[in-house]
Specification:
85 residues; alpha+beta; 3-stranded antiparallel beta sheet; 3 helices; 34% helix
């Protein structure tokens, strides 16, 4: 799989997308982990382990964000995927 660039600016846009759509993601999926790339939700999962297993081979780690959605604003104050880069 070729290395894809994923700039800090794109990561910030994806995070802003997540925050602005947070309520509707929670309403539709409940407590979950949302994977976002280029302001598109590329997957919704019940665990981080499930997310990485499903995304492996499709997207290189570090080229998308993975955010926990709990229905509370405190959930989006940490960027989970950055810890795995």
């Amino acid at each position: 799989m070729p290395k894809m660039d994923y700039s800090d600016e794109q990561r910030d846009r994806d995070f802003d997308f997540f925050v602005s759509h947070y309520d509707e993601i929670f309403k539709k999926h409940g407590r979950c982990y949302a994977a976002i790339k280029n302001e598109i939700i590329i997957g919704v999962f019940h665990s981080i382990k499930e997310a990485f297993a499903s995304l492996e081979g499709k997207y290189e780690r570090g080229t998308y964000i993975l955010q926990e959605c709990t229905g509370k604003a405190s959930a989006y104050q940490t960027r989970i995927a950055r810890a795995f880069i």
